[in-house]
Amino acid sequence: MSLDDKLARLLKLNHQDAVERDRLIIALDFGTTFSGIAYAFSTDPERVYSITAWPGADDRKVPKAPTVIKYEGSTTTFKWGYELDQTLEEKIEGIKLLLDPDQPRPLYTSTNTHAEIAKLSKPVLEVATDYIRAIYQHALREIENAYLADYIKDYDKQYVLSVPAVWSDKAKDMTQRAAKNAGISPIELIKEPEAAALYTLNFMKNKGLKVGDAIVICDAGGGTVDLISYEITCLDPLTLEELVPGSGGLAGSLMLNKRFEHWIQETVGDAEYIELKKTDGYRAAMQQFDLSIKPAFRSKQDPDRYISFPMAKLKDDDSKGIVKNSIILKGTTLFNIFDPIFHDINKYLTEQVNKVQIKRLIAHHPNGGAVRAIFLVGGFGSSVYLRDAIAASHPDIQVIQPNDAWSAIVKGAVLSKLPREAMVVSNAAEKHYGTCCHSLYDSLRDKGEERIWDDWEENEKCAIMQWFIYKKDEKLVRNKKIPLPFYRKFAGENPSKDDLKIKSELYESAALLAPGHPKNVRVSHILNTDLSKVPKSYFIKKARKSDGATYCELHFKLLIEIRSGPMKFSLEVGDEEYSAVNVDY
């Protein structure tokens, strides 16, 4: 950045300071296997810091802590993270996956987390809250210890929480509630691969990227793989448009650990395995696999390795490779452990790449259907085996493992709130979204559909769908409010406050074409709206023709704002917004 640019930025920041207080942006990446926190000051947007010192980690400086927790005799006292690194105790892991129980689970996954939480008689949401509160309070102490107290007080705190792109709005809401219950509020959400893209691409924008390039981000973490694709529309500031809806599923390094444990169990036998899990040697073997064997694996041609279980008293068995409390781990065995997870990741990745290529070809993009690069981020994204396997599967696309890929998500989440550093300006619609309303029966449009009698207007109607997001992949501009018209009828001239507390159902459909009637649709959101503050002048008085019975009608709009996290809703009557709308999932 030139001196003139730096002076211009400082002048801009000084102008902003005159309007609003400076901000300390704190981001949390609540992961399946590891979690991290990063922060930055709005007055120094070029520096993003990670918390690297953790309780129980001794002298290790790492940007993340294990997402594990163990309660000690009660539901209020617990250890977490690296405090459990040297213990053999059963601990709760994979908490994050339980916040989205609707996600399909691969056959090769297994976890004791359900059983451990069941013993506690404590809801998953509260367990997640305890962990998030612990990591946040520790990070806050680390930040406060690095600066003078008066300096920190001059900053307003702004919080960002990253969530998987493939999660439902219900799961995102659960995670957001856990963070709020932990004292992190108000908090905004950002999709994990989006955050990774902002960080990774922002620091590569002067290293060969061009306007018009299509980039696929593959965030392979501990439990999930998230994919998202962008077109670069501007380099300074970095500006991205989402090309196709994000995709992915449950496939990550945690599954590798589970498959490795299952292999040990098959090798030594069930009875030996039960005793083996009680030993220090078992813990040492799992650490050896997690920290050295797993990251170093390249291919089935890798040389044999030895997994040692000191003092385990295993019976020697040459046929199974068990010799002196060690087991031979062949390259072919490791390949069999890795291969199913790779196939799942590559399946999701191939589907994403194909959708991008088809969309750009149909749009006659100047670059054709070309995808410039696939960026691998996340903990499992740093695997050399994964990089080489994906490169072999996609020989026409460069596969890049950027530096600092493990902390790209949490740093990108911070970057998203810094002034004009990097931004995503549009989403691609994942589904059709709309409402169901009653319209006058049309014999052609509604043939075969149920007729509904309207007592007030004394005519026949039919339930039809009104879609505000009419087609999948539709370009949705960020922070633009989409009006969704409603009207309600109320008996009498002065409806009560209870009558004015209404629920509106928002529907979604994943069908190729948006259906005209409420078939193949499901309720995605229930919007709770209080109309009692709306001026009475907006209520239109009417009377039924047959008997003169009075009723009133109110026309209003629900405004839907597209964001990185869940959609935001508000109420508008007569071009004036009255309140936010509470959402149930």
TrEMBL record:
Q: Mind telling me what this protein is named?
A: Uncharacterized protein
Stretches of the chain forming a coiled coil according to its record: none
Which SUPFAM superfamilies does this entry report, sorted A to Z?
A: Actin-like ATPase domain (SSF53067)
Tell me the superkingdom of the source.
Answer: Eukaryota
Classification via Pfam families: HSP70
Q: Which PANTHER family match?
A: ALPHA KINASE/ELONGATION FACTOR 2 KINASE (PTHR14187), HEAT SHOCK 70 KDA PROTEIN 12A (PTHR14187:SF5)
Keywords attached to this entry: ATP-binding, Nucleotide-binding
The record's GO molecular-function terms, alphabetically, read: ATP binding; ATP-dependent protein folding chaperone
Annotated source species: Trichoglossum hirsutum
